[in-house]
Amino acid sequence: MNILKTKKIISFVICVIFVSALFGITSDAKEKENKKYIALTFDDGPHPVYTAKILDILEEKKIAATFFIVGFRAELHPDALKRMKKLDCEIGNHTYSHADLSGNNVKNGVTYEIEKCSEAIFAATGEYPVVYRPPFGKISKANEKRVPLKKILWTVDSLDWNIKNKDKVIRNVVKNVKDGSIILMHDFYESTLRALPDIIEVLSDEGYEFVTVSELAALKKISHLQEYFLD
After folding, report:
1. Are the beta carbons of 141 and 159 closer than 8 angstroms?
2. Is the peptide bond before 46 cis (omega within 30 degrees of 0)?
C-alpha cells in the first residue's frame, strides 16, 4: 500500500470518528433538551427529626434536592448539612434567623443575616452557598442589592406550611408542575415527609428528572417569573 493511499485511509477514518462524535454530542444535547427537569426545594431547616428522614427518602430514590437553610439551625444541626453535601444536594442561604427582608429596617441588618448564615453553612460543609431564598419569598429591591448571591424563589407552592395535609400537599404539587418548575416545600412538617415519596413516584412516572436549582439554571430551565415575588 503506497503512502498516499494510506494517508487517504487515515484521513477517512479520522473524518468518520469526528462526524460520529459530533452526531453523538448533538444527540446527547437534543436528548437533554427534550427531557423535563424540576427542582425540589426545602426551606427553614434543618429540623432535628424530619430533615434526616427526608434525606433518607432522597438517598433511597437517588435524588438531589436544594435546602434553603436557616443559619442558627445549621449551627444546631451541622451533621444534617454534612449529609446533604454527601448526597449531592445543594445548600442555599435562608438568612440566619428567618428574617423578613422586605422592609427597610431588618432587625439585625441584611448583611448580617446573609453573611452569618453563609458562615454557618461553611462551618458545616467547607463551602459557601451561591444561592439564597428570602424568607416569605419577599425582599425589597434595595435589600436585594445588598445580597451577593443568586435569588431563587419558586413556581409551585405545595402549601405544606399552611395545610399540613399529605393528600392536599401531593395534589398541590402534581397538578401544577411543568418543565422547569421549582417546588416549594419545608423540611419541618410530618405531612411533607409523608407526601414526598408519592410526589417523587408520580412525577418520575410522568417523566420528570429531579435536579438542584443551580443545575436547573445551568439547563436554562429557570422561569422568568422569579421576579414576580419582588416588591
Report:
1. no
2. yes
20-39 pLDDT, tens per residue?
A: 554 554 445 455 567 999 99
Contact indicator for 149, 38 with CB cutoff of 8 Å = no
Of these residues, 94, 160, 186, 187, which one is catalytic?
A: 186
CA dihedral 196, 78, 215, 184 (to 10 degrees): 40
CATH topology of domain 36-229: TIM Barrel (3.20.20)
Distance CA 179, CA 132 (A): 22
Query: Cell 428570602, residue?
Result: 134
Give every CB contact of residue 113 below 8 A, 6+ residues apart in sequence: 71, 95, 96, 97, 99, 101, 106
Task: Kindly name the residue from 28, 43, 94, 205 that is annotated as catalytic.
Answer: 43
Instruction: Quick: pLDDT tens for 83-110.
Output: 999 999 999 999 999 999 998 889 889 9
Judge whether residue 63 has pLDDT over 80. Answer: yes
